TrEMBL record:
Residues of the signal peptide: 1-21
Domain of life assignment: Eukaryota
Record carries keyword RNA-binding: no
EGF-like domain segment(s): 22-62, 109-138, 188-219, 258-290, 363-394
InterPro entries registered for this protein in UniProt: EGF (IPR000742), Furin_repeat (IPR006212), Giardia_VSA (IPR052798), Growth_fac_rcpt_cys_sf (IPR009030)
Stated name of the protein: EGF-like domain-containing protein
Keywords assigned: Signal
């Protein structure tokens, strides 16, 4: 009886104590007011405190009062002993964060250069310019910004440096070079249009399109459409071309002008063709274009003689490669690889397949564009494979869901 009374009294006391303040949780992402982050269902107790508060045994939150230099960085303390820190947050400045960990109730800095460490002080992440190697932070190589878990290999370099080679940052990036010969820094190349100045930012070794390298510097080429004028801004050494017009260097003006030969596709100089239009072949010695032998779409005239490189549909080069001859196989379009007399394996006209053994083009099954004796490679347009065995093609119908029946955008 006595015992029951005592217990009752204790309970009443606890209830009275807990009831004195109904739990009110702070709004997330707002400044803590009550210090409680999560209340119990009955709204009487706090279950979880906000940052920088500690939970007491009776379910209230009190502000941490951890002493020491980093005391205010304590994010969680013991509510009944608010001067004992349990978890610390990092101390961040404008450029980097110093990791802190709780040690004997205080916030202590993680090891040097460490941005985050565990409760035992073992580093989990390093500051910039440091790599995590076996739990400690080691300085990355020179000019290296981050080096992951191997300080000897660079992952990214500081601005101006390039770490493509051997994962070090000892060479400067495109358009950068050392401020003077032998220096270890990287500054933009001095000359406008310079793309490389690897030994010395004042000494350019390569220029952008439209510039020429003249005495260690880049100068803008004088002529329109000029892409390079190394040696002299007024003498163009290569010209730009577009799909419709091909330009070559013009010795007379130092500029660029259309290729002289009307049958020339691209030229280096206006009078030096290097690629002829279809049906014409380059006379390698003269740099001009001459008509190809009959039925040849491309050919070459060189010191040995005339050679056909490609023939019109239904024709192929003869054995010597000097003439285009009819393939000689019914329904054969291409016989370039084997020469006239044989059809290429995929050389038969659309809707026909090649039989290697018989050297004939045979008709594929209905709707098939290219086939072997046993299967169809793909269907004609307007047809699609009937099923996943991909053997037969059937006509597409209205609303046909098969992929090959969908209009091509
Ligand atoms: C990391 O530590 C282990 C064991 O102490 C050692 O064998 C290994 O060589 C160390 N690795 C580096 C990169 O220092
Ligand atoms: C040549 O330059 C002019 C003017 O800049 C330009 O309009 C034209 O497209 C260029 N031609 C070629 C072939 O690049
Ligand atoms: C190609 O260059 C010529 C002459 O320079 C110019 O007139 C034409 O507009 C250019 N065409 C294209 C597609 O850029
Ligand atoms: C001429 O062109 C043919 C075919 O491209 C080649 O086989 C031959 O070696 C060339 N001759 C010379 C002298 O370049």
């Amino acid at each position: 009886m006595r015992r029951t009374l005592l217990l009752f009294a204790a309970c009443a006391l606890l209830l009275a104590h807990g009831a004195h303040a109904a739990c009110k949780a702070d709004k997330p992402d707002a400044d803590p007011v009550s210090g409680c982050a999560k209340c119990s269902k009955d709204g009487k107790k706090c279950l979880e405190c906000s940052e920088r508060f500690g939970l007491t045994a009776d379910g209230t939150c009190v502000r941490c009062t951890v002493p020491g230099y980093f005391g205010d960085k304590c994010s969680k303390c013991d509510g009944d002993k608010p001067d004992i820190c349990l978890t610390c947050s990092a101390s961040c400045g404008r450029r980097s964060c110093l990791g802190l960990f709780a040690s004997e109730g205080r916030c202590e800095p993680c090891s040097d250069s460490c941005a985050d460490c565990n409760a035992k002080g073992q580093c989990l992440a390093c500051q910039r310019f440091y790599g995590l190697v076996n739990g400690t932070c080691q300085h990355c190589k020179e000019n290296c910004y981050s080096c992951g878990d191997d300080a000897s290999k660079c992952e990214s370099c500081t601005s101006g440096y390039d770490c493509k080679d051997e994962k070090t940052c000892n060479s400067c990036d495109f358009g950068y070079g050392p401020s003077k010969k032998g220096a270890k820094d990287c500054v933009p190349c001095k000359s406008t249009g310079c793309t490389g100045c690897y030994d010395d930012s004042a000494k350019c070794t390569s220029c952008d399109t439209g510039f020429g390298l003249v005495k260690d510097a880049c100068v803008a080429c004088a002529a329109a459409n000029c892409t390079n004028c190394d040696g002299d801004a007024k003498v163009c050494t290569s010209c730009s071309s577009n799909d419709t017009v091909s330009l070559g260097t013009d010795k007379a003006t130092g500029g660029c002008a259309p290729c002289k030969d009307a049958n020339c596709q691209t030229c280096t100089a206006t009078d030096a063709c290097n690629f002829c239009k279809d049906g014409f072949g380059l006379d390698e010695k003269a740099g001009t274009c001459k008509p190809c032998p009959e039925k040849a779409t491309s050919c070459t005239f060189n010191a040995t003689g005339t050679f056909v490189d490609a023939c019109a549909n239904g024709y192929g080069p003869d054995k010597a490669g000097k003439e285009c001859k009819a393939c000689g196989v019914d329904k054969c379009d291409r016989c370039d690889k084997l020469g006239a007399g044989f059809c290429d394996v995929y050389g038969c006209a659309e809707g026909y397949g090649y039989s290697d053994q018989e050297n004939v083009c045979f008709a594929c099954k209905e709707g098939c564009a290219s086939c072997t004796e046993t299967s169809c490679s793909y269907c004609l347009s307007g047809y699609a494979f009937a099923d996943s065995s991909e053997k037969a093609c059937t006509k597409c119908v209205d609303g046909d869901k098969r992929g090959d029946c969908q209009p091509v955008n």
